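Recall the central idea of this unit: under ordinary conditions, the amino acid sequence of a chain determines the structure it adopts. In this exercise we apply that idea directly, starting from the sequence alone.
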Amino acid sequence: MKIYNHLYQIVIKSLPFSTPAWLQILRRKYVILTLLLSLNFITATPAMAANKSFDFLKQPATEITISLGNSANELKFEPNHLEFEAGKRYQLRLTNPSQLKHYFTAKDFADGIWTQKVEAGKVEIKGAISELELKPNAEAEWIFVPLKSGTYGLRCSISGHTEAGMTGEIIIKN
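Accordingly, the structure predicted from this sequence is:
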């Protein structure tokens, strides 16, 4: 848009005629051109996203297993430091070998990824996910593609679990 504004200013100021009627016609044409170009970008975005998600589905998923707690009922993620690369497909296997329920809570991380699906038992969930609850001895599978690089916090949001050290860090690199 800045380029178009700049060109508009150059063209208008360099015209030998500066009658209000000509300026009004040029402004209308400028507005129409700007709207058409904007619509072109808007309509291209969903198509590009569809192509990207199709490309993601062709990739084999890198499998990573994370334990929420352990058989000794320690309040920790194993591992508690995760690194992913933007644009690659991952299959996160979440297990809860403890006798306590735990949450895998990482909303900012979840906002920076494209989730293909979450599967637990005979249920498959699609769409935006920000937190998963795993009951004792439960397992879940989260297939996703990181899109936005950054460092994100991970925690179990059950009262007392975060304070006891059930936290982690998730890094998405470009």
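The chain is about 35% helix and 35% strand.
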